[in-house]
Amino acid sequence: MLPNGSQDVAPLLQDQVSGERLKRTLYFFFLNPVDKWSLRKTFPGKLIFKIVLAVLVASQLVLFSQERMPYFEYATRVDRVLHHKFLKNWDSDNDPYAFPPGEKVYLLYERTDVYKHLGHVVLSYYNLKNDTLGSFAYYNAAKQVHVPEMSFCQKPKRKASKICQYLKISEADVEELRTDLSYIEDVLSVNNVSLFNGLQAFRRVYLEFSLESIHESDHQTKCHQVQTFVYFDNSKRNDMVDVSLSIKLSPILCSLELISEMEAGLQPNDWLNIILDVILIACCLFSMALAIKSLMYGVKLMQITDKYIHSRNSCHLSFIDKLRFFHVWYVVVILNDILVIAGTCIKLNLANTDFNNALYTCTSMFLGCAVFVVAIDLLRYLTFLNVLISMTKFMTNVLQLILCAGILYSAFLLAGWTIIGPYSPKFHTVSRSSKTLFSLLNGDDMFATFVTVETSSQVLLVFSTIFVYSFVIIFIYVMLSLVIAIFENAWYRTVEDQSRYNTPQQKTDLDMLVEEMDVDTLNDAHAAHFFERDQLL
């Protein structure tokens, strides 16, 4: 019987003298899952659960992507269409959604151009019914006799608040704009709006209006309010006005102008997604419960073992031995389950909220990270541990190498940006320089990098050549070879450590206690009986 008269531990140790039950428990506790199933000859329920959970998380991510991508494509199409409709000289060179993306900035240089572009926006808005192909309508138009008025906002000073008003535009004004877009200056004057006062010019103005757009897919039809903003930015005072357009989508009920028959309620696919979400949340809660239970069991077993060793050897478990009872991976599983639950709850709420790119990105990151953790957890159950152990062993050396490479990479980055930046678009900014160098690491065409460098300076051309070749040699051939060598060394060390695990120099009090277990128990025909739940602590 253990000293101290502990009532919570003593009843558990039925073999009070030898502690065979504790030794069997420790032996079983440190086995990998596959060996546990082989020893108990039981159905691998946890493995099946892990496989089901992995399939559910992967299915959730696939379904979310299938929902998200059409919505993003729809938002991109709406944005592109409105750019073409409301920006006067918009073309593919300005289109950021084209491939390769357009980098031409939409700028105006004269007052007449500013007025013409403002007039074009107003005219396009009032001609919407005549020009649209049936996908857009005025928002809330059914409750109004006339076309809803546009809002004109301006910010006169840097720290001043914006001033907004509705533009009063008559049918006669629209007719005048059809013949002369500059007539918008008179329209603004009637509305007491002045963009230019002598040499003084506006700082930043924008037009705001709302449209209704229809999104029809194979399964359902949805409508959205498209809140549109057309900006004219002169805040830099560099004699250039930057013109841009942005939209904000919000789900609404479709009006009769766009669709005559509206499908009410949730569609079958929506119900299937909701059912899958609920099942996944329930599985994650169950997984969290299992992980928390395992953590608590490990702490309890550590306390019992520590008391047993103290009663026998008058010493306590070492800190390293105590850590062996605490599986950090269970904490990772709990955090991962929380991520999945949070991502699933956000996903359930996305259908009823405004189109929010940040929420979509957050949900995809939660579910994407969860897939990796679930996959690694499955590998852990399938005892593919040598690779994981090797990764932990070489991580210190890799971190040292990354620190060294990071310092060297920073030197290349700053040198390339400072020296080559003014002469090559690939090095104009620190961000572009970093992307260019990473592209070179991944096999990007070096010739394209050389071509973008201006050849007016022979010295610069020689430097850029030496710069690129040196970077490629150091980071591809040298660094990559070092990483491979570190991993191979860690792998061989892992195998050697496992082969030398039973050497006396590496044994701790905990190891020796586990080895004291009666090995005849394992060879017994009824060995599974000794490792049933009621035979262990």
Task: Describe this structure as you would to a colleague.
It comes from Steinernema carpocapsae. InterPro entries: MCLN_ECD, Mucolipin. GO terms for molecular function: NAADP-sensitive calcium-release channel activity. One of its GO terms (cellular component) is plasma membrane. Keywords: Membrane, Transmembrane, Transmembrane helix. The chain has 537 residues and is α+β, with helices and mostly antiparallel strands. The protein folds into 3 domains: 206 residues, no CATH class; 166 residues, no CATH class; 111 residues. The protein has 18 helices and 9 strands. The strands form 2 sheets. Strands 1, 2, 3, 4, 7, 8 and 9 form a 7-stranded antiparallel β-sheet that branches. A two-stranded antiparallel sheet has the order 5-6. Helix 3 crosses helix 8, helix 10 packs antiparallel against helix 11 and helix 12 packs antiparallel against helix 15. The longest helix has 46 residues.
